[in-house]
Amino acid sequence: MPEPHPPHSPHSLTAGPVAGPPARPADEPAARPADAPTHEPVDEPVDGPLAGLVVVSLEQAVAAPFATRQLADLGARVIKIERPGTGDLARGYDRTVRGMSSHFVWLNRGKESVQLDVRSPEGNRRLHALVDRADVLVQNLAPGAAARLGIDSAQLAPDHPGLITCDISGYGSTGPHRDRKAYDLLVQAEAGLLSITGTPQTPSKVGLSIADICAGTYAYSGILTALLERTRTGLGTRLEISMLEALGEWMGYAEYFTRYGGAAPARAGASHATIAPYGPFPTNDGQSVMLGLQNAHEWVAFCETVLRRPRLAEDPRFLGNADRVAHRDELDAVVRETTLGLSTADLVDRLDEARVAHARQRTMSEFSEHAQLLARGRWASFDSPVGELRGLIPPVTVPGRRPARLRPVPALGEHTASVLAWLDAPLEPSPEGRSSCPLN
Known about the structure:
Layout: E1 54-58, H1 63-73, E2 77-82, H2 102-107, E3 111-115, H3 121-132, E4 136-139, H4 145-148, H5 153-156, E5 164-169, H6 184-190, H7 210-233, E6 238-242, H8 243-250, H9 252-261, E7 278-282, E8 288-292, H10 296-306, H11 321-326, H12 328-339, H13 344-354, E9 357-360, H14 364-368, H15 371-375, E10 379-382, E11 389-392, H16 416-424
Parallel strand pairs: 1-2, 1-4, 2-3, 4-5, 5-6
Antiparallel strand pairs: 7-8, 8-9, 10-11
Helix pairs in contact: 1-7, 7-8, 10-13
């Protein structure tokens, strides 16, 4: 989890010129053709079920930005408050996207970036003015930082009864771990995930920021639930999500297995601790095919059509899944003997004929060109400070709402002037004659 905003001088409210990405290496091609559109703030109305909703977010890293990017994808106006000069620390994680961070590009499409020194008197006044116009306030600052800024949910509730606040932390606002720093790997360790992930010899972390992502997922669904509830009650809600508790929910099967079974699921690498055969098997052309058998019918079909050893289905060592798991090494050796005698294409043909679940063990580059994603038109372009990029469209498909183009990634402070001007402008009345300010 990130630290609270560091102190800045009061005049750093807008932090001068907009900061761009690191310089592109001399041998890297230009980011965009000369006739490509320039990166400008999007002024046209945004479509989507959350259009008109204002979300103010003091966010860094992954968890909160993941949640608010989902809201932006649904049309919400997400105003991202960033540190003057440096911005979200995720901007500096790497330089792999033509000088920009892959994490930042992934998590911040469709947002407005505002540089604000929230600790200075003027910056804090502007922050509170933004909260006054917000429907949702999201923050994943260090413990106690929101209260010091005057934006703790308890402080805001009396004057903002319709405001939805969402606080994301590592361990929650109470308890012995409340003040601990919480980075993704540390939470994976605390939740027991490392103890069941990896090989028998080596515990391993998950290759993605899974604790952050699951916390962001619950923040997103919690905000949508609170918005729905507000339509009935007119009142906002305080949401609190901890990374440990969010990841703990995803650890439910393993916790029940251990609590009531007496032993934790064994680390099994790319195989499955409680299902066999399940995992990667090599072919004679140097590739691997992932197999996954879930029931007795598939096991019989696998023996008859793939292994071409129908009597193996009746072998007492392999009759049921529990038997196969108990004799995994013997079973894997039998399966590997067959797969090593086949090309990947031949093995896949047999698996298709038997209707047994399987998958290619693809690289990330192969995933980017996956035939299924291409056939379904799941990629779209979007603009950024380093030119046009390509990304996956949101995974929920709604008829008639497939975006032809995704919303842009903001440069640091790109929208500071326009957002502050919006704050200074009088509120526009709605068609019904009411102020356009949300119910907070």
